[in-house]
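BUG: 3D viewer hangs when loading the predicted structure for this chain

Environment: internal workstation, default settings.
Expected: structure renders.
Actual: progress bar stalls at 90%.

Input used:
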Amino acid sequence: MRDEESGVPPDFDKVIHERARLRILIYLASSHDAELGFTDIKRDLAMTAGNLSIQLGTLEEAGYIQLRKTYMGKKPYTGASLTLAGKSALERYLNEMESMLTLLRAGRK
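Structure tokens produced before the viewer hung:
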């Protein structure tokens, strides 16, 4: 978060700030389902399998999502779910973004 008195913009979480990862976290957070499948995420966010796999790995390594690998019938299935740490980090990120916008708007007056 930024210091309200100093007017210094926030330093965003670099894991979340990357566009693809931010889209994934928002997609997971806004879903009614606790877990979403790799194929659904790939399709709905129009990502390649390779890029999605890398981004999910980065988010998992940061502790922001949990991946579950299993089989559905005879087909492999990877499910992704947002962790409590991921929810908190996304909320912090969005609050920081709001702070930055407030700072920008205040500077324009």
